[in-house]
Every structure is written in C-alpha cells, then in structure tokens.
Amino acid sequence: MDVPNLTDRQDRDDKLNIDHKNLKSSHNREQNFKQSVPKVLLVGYNGANNTGSEARLISIIKDVRAVLGPDVCITIPTLNEKNLRRYIKEEANLKIVPIPSIFFFALKKLVKEHDLVLLVEGSCYMDTWTSALLWAFLWTTKCANSSKIPCIAYSVDAGDLSPLNKFLVKREASKTDLIITRTKLAADKLKNIGVTAPIKNTADSAFTFQKDDNDETIIQDIWTKESLPKPEKSVVGFAVVDFYLWPVVIRPWGKSKDRYKWPYYFSRSKKRAKKSDDLSARWAALADKIIEKHGKSIALICMEELDEPLALNIIGKMQHSENAHIFTSNEFNTSQMTGILQGLELLITSRYHAAVLSLESPVPQIAVAHDPRLKGLYNELGIDKEYLFDYRLENAGKIVWDKVEKQADDLLGNPKKINNKLKQGYSQHLMGAEKNRQLLKEFLIERGWEVRP
Hints:
47% helix; Rossmann fold; alpha/beta; transferase activity; Polysaccharide pyruvyl transferase; transferase; 2 domains; single chain; disordered N terminus; seven-stranded parallel beta sheet; 16 helices; Polysacch_pyruvyl_Trfase
C-alpha cells in the first residue's frame, strides 16, 4: 500500500479551505446585498470635459436607476473632480470620488466596497488614446474577478491594440462577466483577439441621451451675441481632433506644456507638431472653400477641451475666419453641444460622439477617421463606402481632403441624399441602446438580484 503524501494532503486541505472562504465570502455579500441598498461603481473617462463621455455617463446613471431603483448607491471615480461636478450633481446616493493618477490601489479599494462594477468608457478596449486608460479598465476587471464581484463592460468599443495590449485584453477582459459592445465590429474584434467572456452587441448608450429643448436655438443666439454674420443658410460643423497629440504616454518627467496629468504626457515631437500644423491647414482650406462656394458659416466643435488648440490654429489659418466660431465642451454642456450638432446643415467629424449625437436630426455627415470607432458606426449606417475616409490609410495626403470636399459639395447640394439611411440608422441604434438596460436587468435577475419591473 502506498503511503499518502502528507504535503500533498495539506496543500489539498488548504485549497479546500480557501475555496470555502471564497464561497462563504460571496454568499455573505449576496446576503448583505439583499438586506441593504446595492452599491454600483461606474468606472470610465469621467471628468474630462468630454461631451461623449458626459452623454454616456448621464444615460448610464439613468439605466442603473431604472433597473435598481432611485435609491441605488452610485459611486463615480474621477481624475478631475472639479470638471465632473460641472454636469454630475452629488447626492446622498451618488458619490464622486477623486482618485490619484497612479490608480491601482484606489480602484482596488473601491471595487471591494461595491456590489456591482460597470465599465462605462466607450473607448474601453483600445490604446488609441493611452495604454494607461486601458490598463485601468483591465485592472478594475481583474480586481472584481478576484473579489467575486460581478463586472459588466457596458456599451463599449474595441479598437487598435499593441501586441502586448492584445495579450492583456485577451487575458483580463475574458474575466468580465458580460461585455456589451456598441458595434458588431467591436464584438468581432474582441472575439478575434480571443476574449472568452459572454459578448452581446447593442449600441452606444449616448443614443438615449435627450437634450433640453431650450438649447435648440443656441447656435443662432451665439452668432448674434458674437456679432458674427447671421448664418441664414445654416452652418457646417467640423468636429476636429488633433491626431498627433495621442497616445498619451507615461513618463517620469517632461515639458509642462505637454503634460496631461502627471505622469501622463502627450506624444509631442517636432515631427508631430509639424503634422498637427499641416492638419490645421487642411481643415482651414476646406472651411474657406465651403464658405466661398456655398456661403455657409463654420462651427468648429470641440467635443473635448483638448481639441481647442487645434480649433484655434484652424481659425488662425483661415482667410474667412470672420465666418467661423468655436463651440467647446469647456463652455457648453452636453445638452447644449447636442443642440449645436443637431442644428447643423452638414457635419464633417473626426469625433465618434459628434456623429452619434447629431444623428437624431438627422444631419448629413462625413467622417475623417483616425481609429475604427467611426468605421464601425458608419458601417452599420450603411454610409462607410462613400462618406468615411481613414486618415491613416490615406497617409494624410491631399487625396483625402479632395474626396471630403467633393462629398461635402454633394451633400450640401443634395442634403436629403442619405436622409433615409440616417433616419433608419438612428431608429435601429436607439433600440439597441435601449436594449442595454434590458441586458443589465436580465444579468442581475440571473444572479438573484431584486430589480424594478
């Protein structure tokens, strides 16, 4: 007879004890939850004066309250508390919690204090803006998984990733209890990477955002207030992004003008600065041609305050700058920015949420894209072949701007050309966005949570 290995037996007993403790801990959490108000943590790009993130957050808070009731306790962590308070009012059951730039310990602590974690940033699984943001979401998922706390990626996107980040997404995102993507393209990207978590495809939460009716005439009021030529023939909007600021990288030190928030710095160099200046010149030339050929005014729309330097540079290079005005998220809230977007005759955008928030009107639009997000949306709208131009594939050359100008001329001459596609697309995406709430409800019911009927 073989003699049992006492060390193996001890290891097995220790493992059983650990598993029992985890099971007991999870059971106690469920019991405590049933006896108290649930606590929900919303982790995203909160407080950045970003119109899209603002629209998403407001809509998601409404979703959570619709499913779990008005008394649900919501916590929103942020790197910029002051900005977040501009559009989120702290209440007894809604807390804003500042976290440091080195976020690992703070997020881990917050996760353990909550019953449910939602990743609410649209640009969740991509490193276009910065790897640090991606790592924050993956770290949050890892902490939730380790603590047996349910975690949902709520109406998110997937995009460009380095080989290292693909590996990390495959490993950590697979630990998510449910991933809801806002486009089919995003869902396919995650599956192709090898993410094994359950994935559902719906639409962006911002589609359910509703502006205040009082903000509908804001663009006309601004033109009058600033003594600008009255835009009697309406306005063409440019939602611009400086592609050459990104990604934000981690450095122990750098130039103060390039610092986003220590230790994060914009990817600045002489070469990048030159390309940024060339980008401004291209936008300025397009604006002047539209003013000269069609008699339109130009609204430079900064969906994030970081877009303002590029917009100022564009106006500085325009020959007809008196016919242009900057509208920025630093000055206007999401309701007002949505009113501006929906009052346009034509939108030419590099910003995903400018496309989303203008769609209800529906405003004819053209995309000058620098990552896959607009590609996914335009593909579902059925307008990607004619009206989406990938700035990277065109090598930022004159050819892309010639094509954009041609399509702008076409849509200004025949604004109803894609009207039906935009209307149908908005209707479908609105239904998809409303499905997010239903998926959240079903997810919680399966786990024995009490939800509103």
